[in-house]
Inverse folding.
């Protein structure tokens, strides 16, 4: 057999653009502006980093120790894709304790974080071309998950009141419906706006969804983070097991477990086989020892949640009062979640403003346009931080925004 001839390679030739050969849906995935800002300062120890939705407390020791014990006990093998039966039972008890609802364990699936829960929901609900309504500004991952699955995100803008509060009339949602609408997305309390949907409006939206045969996808990640009110209401309190409702959640925020990648999805009666398959073909399961740690979080972690919420409430007050004194800054205390979204007067694009605050104030914030065009003129600040760090952030931001230089290049 003759030897193969060597292939000559022209070092001056342009490289093949393999990205152009990828799926059109994948080529269209947006670049996170939060990442663009963070990449400029994530390794700078002097930056006050308020761009990512992550608290500054470590995971509680009792959760870490539960994972360690589980590893030592040999819980390092595969398990059912829906999650450990004991974890799903703990999730059922957690929802009964906090919302007074009876959701059986067989309606839960454990996921690789809240993002995987949302992706599985989108995969289950959307055919190519189906529309999903998303209030905006919105966490960018929501729309991109929809696009990856072939769906079409349709934004419904919040209304921004003169004092900086965000509202969302149900009439605006209804006006955005088309024959292609299949799902209405609700994130309450909202990332990034802090808007929280009142229970009466949730009931009206449920009735609208029933009337039109639509699904509700409710992301209830920040339900505990409310200020001056009780825990945020859940659609589980007003829907039956046969309603077209999917609820997603995560262990990341309540128990400072962002890096553990654990979440859950709640689906209607009878869909366990569907979500078992979705889990099997996406992650198989999350690590078994992490699931044991999640049981500890659910069973023993209510006190830690209260600590987190109390810290956020104090930092929220410090930041709102401090920023409200600055010229050209309009900010209202959010009802829920742990983000401020102040409006900054001037014509400086939000992304450029975020770069300038990073450079001149050494404070990392997320540009409003990271959450869609409706976020122009706004920035997002995460206040899941200590009161001391909140005061330092106000001091630094006041040194830049307090000069009245917003909207002018330096």
């Amino acid at each position: 057999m003759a030897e193969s001839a060597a292939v000559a390679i022209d070092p001056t030739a342009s490289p093949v653009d393999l990205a152009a050969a990828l799926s059109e849906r994948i080529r269209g995935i947006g670049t996170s502006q939060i990442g663009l800002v963070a990449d400029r300062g994530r390794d700078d120890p002097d930056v006050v980093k308020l761009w990512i939705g992550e608290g500054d407390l470590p995971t509680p020791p009792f959760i870490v120790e539960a994972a360690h014990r589980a590893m030592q006990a040999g819980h390092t093998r595969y398990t059912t894709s829906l999650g450990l039966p004991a974890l799903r039972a703990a999730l059922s008890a957690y929802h009964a304790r906090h919302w007074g609802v009876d959701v059986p364990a067989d309606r839960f699936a454990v996921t690789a974080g809240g993002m995987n829960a949302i992706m599985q929901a989108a995969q289950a609900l959307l055919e190519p071309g189906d529309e999903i309504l998303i209030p905006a500004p919105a966490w960018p991952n929501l729309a991109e998950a929809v696009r990856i699955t072939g769906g079409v995100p349709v934004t419904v803008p919040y209304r921004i009141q003169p004092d900086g509060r965000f509202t969302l009339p149900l009439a605006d949602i209804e006006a955005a419906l088309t024959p292609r609408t299949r799902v209405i997305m609700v994130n309450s309390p909202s990332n990034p706006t802090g808007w929280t949907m009142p229970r009466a409006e949730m009931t009206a939206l449920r009735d609208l969804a029933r009337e039109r045969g639509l699904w509700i996808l409710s992301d209830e990640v920040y339900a505990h983070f409310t200020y001056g009110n009780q825990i945020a209401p859940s659609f589980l309190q007003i829907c039956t097991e046969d309603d077209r409702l999917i609820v997603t959640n995560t262990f990341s925020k309540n128990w400072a477990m962002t890096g553990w990648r654990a979440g859950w999805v709640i689906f209607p009666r009878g869909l366990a086989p569907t979500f078992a398959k979705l889990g099997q073909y996406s992650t198989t399961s999350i690590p078994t020892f992490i699931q044991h740690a999640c049981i500890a979080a659910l069973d023993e972690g209510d006190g830690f949640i209260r600590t987190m919420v109390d810290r956020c409430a104090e930092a929220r007050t410090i930041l709102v009062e401090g920023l409200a004194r600055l010229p050209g800054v309009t900010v209202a205390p959010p009802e829920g979640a742990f983000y401020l979204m102040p409006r900054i007067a001037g014509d400086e694009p939000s992304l450029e403003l975020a770069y300038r605050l990073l450079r001149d104030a050494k404070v990392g914030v997320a540009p409003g346009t990271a959450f869609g065009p409706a976020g122009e003129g706004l920035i997002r600040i995460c206040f899941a931080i200590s009161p001391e760090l909140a005061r330092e952030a106000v001091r630094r931001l006041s040194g830049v925004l307090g000069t009245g230089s917003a909207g002018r290049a330096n």
Notes: The radius of gyration is 23 Å. Confidence is low (pLDDT under 50) at residues 1-7, 405-410.
